[in-house]
Design a protein that fits this description.
By secondary structure, the chain is of the alpha+beta class. It has 20 helices and eight strands. It has a four-stranded mixed sheet with strand order 6-5-7-8. Strands 1-4 form a two-stranded antiparallel ribbon. Strands 2-3 form a two-stranded antiparallel ribbon. GO terms for molecular function: 2-methylcitrate dehydratase activity.
Length: 507
Amino acid sequence: MEQHQVRVHRSDEDLPRKEQLAWRIAEVAADLVPVDDEVTDMVVNRVLDNAAVAAASLTRRPVAAARSQALAHPPSAGGRGAGVSGVGPGARVSPEWAAWANGVAVRELDFHDTFLAADYSHPGDNIPAVLAVAQHMGRSGADVVRGIVTAYEIQVDLVRSICLHEHKIDHVAHLGPAAAAGIGTLLGLDVPTIHQAVGQALHTTTATRQSRKGEISSWKAYAPAFAGKMAVEAVDRAMRGETSPAPIYEGEDGFIAWLLSGPGHVYTVPLPAAGEPKRGILDTYTKEHSAEYQAQALIDLARRMRRDVPRALDPAQVASIVIATSHHTHHVIGSGSGDPQKYDPRASRETLDHSIPYIFTVALQDGAWHHVDSYAPERAQRPDTVQLWQRTTTREDPEWTRRYHSHDPAQKAFGGRVEVTFTDGTTYRDEIAVADAHPLGARPFGRQQYVEKFRTLAQGVLDDAEVERFLALAQRLPELGPEEVALLDLTARAGLLESLPAPRGIF
């Protein structure tokens, strides 16, 4: 990896284009290095993972709304159109709208892959945009693999090095440039064209973190889909010869100067050298549970505690539960956020998904976590749950913060230590570093687990024959021709989508 020093430059410094971060990203995207088997296998896993969570979300209101918007936009004249999750191969829409609808379906349940470092991300959010353009432009499965590999690499490298959340900028600001770069690789575009697309994608996808703060709304699922849609449009404009603000990262009035750490700060961004394989996807990890990633290990710990100390389930016996964890977990999904909504039994699903006190309480009492049942209003409002939930808090522990940011895989941790104080004065302590499904966890996910996740989440949504068709097709992704890539869509069981309310808007 080459380390690129990125800082603000005054306009009169005249930073050469080839030294700009957006240009360096474009060089990586245009470098069509071979993809090794391990990376290819993980791309297939991620495609299966995305399809699983998309299937489970097809009947949810935000997904239905995004799908109805997309279906109002038939294929543009430049290609074949792209598919929309659930609708089947008979329906085709313009690729940016397919990226939008499918991106919302993938993101709605907060149940796909993650990468956490200086910032945080869900790199699987890149796949809908890359796949939509591939279907529209008639590209092969091998092209799709290369595009996804680039998108993951760029997002992972940006997340390793540039923190957005400390400046209250939403994490999709790294997603837009990554998706644009991935589409550039998919289409075999040259460096100057990808450079302009990356700049436009960053410029149009920067927003504040309020989408993940306070009363969290359905926009949490829409924000990554919007970034994918903007990336498709940015590449289209760049291919037509249109340009972007530059230098977009380093400019005097650019991204770093006014939205991040400002003049004087230097970011060190690692990117693959020319000819170096792109392997960033191997550092990402998926979710076994439909909740914020920092909750994954703590759900597993709660399940273990339920078995080992059953009296912790009874609020009459518990004086307090304190979760010592990282700065990020404490301040984003813990009581350190200062959000009273995280303790509100009538809060939205999106808010509860970002409340570790709620998630830990329910996992402790139920010994399980379900993507629908665990968020149901009747579950959140159960009196004994509310009592225990209100007694559960988080605090930052410097050691867990250090491990969260460690570059050593054996040290890096996303869990915490839990201390239960009982009303009789006794205490119980236990801790966990990584989720069971993590590569270093108790039960790491492999292909078998991704297939099982797809089968489980597709139950009641897809017919058995459709489940098997998609599994067989997706697992041959590197070998697929354009006609088969066009079939990498899900078809819901007959009558399912038609039974849902059809939201109407302008389109």
